């Protein structure tokens, strides 16, 4: 390994984690890169580069923050060779692999090649002539005062189902525990290659989400009675679409890779982080 890239949360204190990475890298002659606008607030030895350079030059990308930082790091690593190690500085940190106290052991495991990489699916679309990419979800969302999201879902060019809702979310399995989950969508293992279409707060008689093949082309068409909708990409508004317009989406397998150290499984993380509970009707151990 020749270089490691740091992606920092814009506000949280990452000094301890940065020091751990710099110490590890310094002992091994590994160059540490950081996005110039981010590392300027830290007095550290990382080399300032552009986001594009960081993705291109890094052999490992280390995300220091929460899930939003991890998603940004995955977008920087999109199509590049570097896997992403997520270090949680927040409360939930569903996508991160380790917390800060475990970072030195994680870096030692990477030294010893005692890790695996897990490919992650992205979903792409073209919005007003530019490509947008999400690792969690792309959603068309009601703008307050502009009416509901009235959207026809087409699969492979054929009409499939229509929704009237506050939003329609197209999520990857990675994003199944985010907006889609809050809208009632299924929790889906990241090993599954599929796209999840979930209506949020549906007003229509048919309110079920659907799971589609990653090889299907999905089109969201705004029907004439729809309001103007915001297009959210991993939670950030990237533009707007109006009735009569459409958004074509395609899944892209193995767009990025994340480091897994085998400490927990996806299902253990989902149960703990989402605080999943069993039905009250099911007796617990020791109950009679």
UniProtKB/TrEMBL annotation:
UniProt keyword annotation of Hydrolase present: no
SUPFAM superfamilies: NAD kinase/diacylglycerol kinase-like (SSF111331)
Subcellular location: Cytoplasm
Residue numbers binding NAD(+): 67-68, 72, 136-137, 166, 177-182, 201, 236
InterPro entries, sorted: ATP-NAD_kinase_N, ATP-NAD_kinase_PpnK-typ_C, NAD/diacylglycerol_kinase_sf, NADK
One BP annotation, GO: NAD+ metabolic process
Top EC group: transferase
Keywords assigned: ATP-binding, Cytoplasm, Kinase, NAD, NADP, Nucleotide-binding, Transferase
Gene Ontology molecular-function annotations: ATP binding; metal ion binding; NAD binding; NAD+ kinase activity
Needed co-factor(s): a divalent metal cation
Main location: cytoplasm
Catalysed reactions, as listed in the record: NAD(+) + ATP = ADP + NADP(+) + H(+)
GO cellular component entries: cytoplasm
Pfam families on file: NAD_kinase (PF01513), NAD_kinase_C (PF20143)
Highest taxon of source: Bacteria
Active-site residues, Swiss-Prot/TrEMBL: 67 (proton acceptor)
EC code: 2.7.1.23
HAMAP family: NAD_kinase
Function: Involved in the regulation of the intracellular balance of NAD and NADP, and is a key enzyme in the biosynthesis of NADP. Catalyzes specifically the phosphorylation on 2'-hydroxyl of the adenosine moiety of NAD to yield NADP.
Family in the record: Belongs to the NAD kinase family.
The name this protein goes by in its record: NAD kinase
């Amino acid at each position: 390994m020749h270089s490691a890239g740091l992606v920092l949360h814009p506000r949280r204190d990452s000094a301890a984690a940065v020091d751990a990475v710099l110490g590890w890298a310094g002992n091994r002659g590994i160059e540490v890169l950081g996005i110039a606008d981010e590392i300027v607030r830290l007095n550290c030895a990382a080399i300032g580069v552009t986001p594009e350079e960081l993705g291109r030059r890094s052999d490992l990308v280390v995300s220091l923050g929460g899930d939003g930082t991890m998603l940004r790091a995955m977008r920087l690593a999109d199509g590049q060779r570097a896997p992403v190690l997520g270090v949680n500085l927040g409360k939930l940190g569903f996508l991160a692999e380790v917390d800060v106290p475990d970072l030195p052991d994680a870096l030692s495991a990477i030294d010893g090649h005692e890790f695996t990489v897990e490919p992650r699916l992205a979903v792409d679309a073209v919005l007003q002539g530019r490509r947008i990419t999400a690792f969690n979800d792309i959603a068309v969302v009601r703008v307050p005062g502009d009416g509901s999201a009235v959207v026809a879902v087409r699969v492979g060019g054929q009409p499939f189902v229509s929704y009237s809702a506050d939003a329609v979310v197209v999520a990857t399995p990675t994003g199944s525990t985010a907006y889609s989950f809050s809208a009632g969508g299924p929790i889906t293992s990241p090993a599954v290659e599929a796209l999840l279409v979930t209506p949020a707060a549906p007003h229509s008689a048919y309110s079920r989400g659907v799971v589609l093949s990653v090889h299907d082309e999905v089109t969201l068409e705004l029907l004439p009675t729809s309001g103007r909708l915001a297009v959210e990409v991993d939670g950030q508004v990237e533009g707007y679409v109006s009735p009569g317009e459409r958004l074509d989406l395609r899944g892209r397998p193995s767009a990025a890779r994340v480091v897994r150290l085998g400490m927990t499984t996806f299902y253990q993380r989902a149960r703990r982080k989402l605080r999943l509970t069993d039905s009250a009707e099911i007796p617990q151990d020791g109950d009679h």
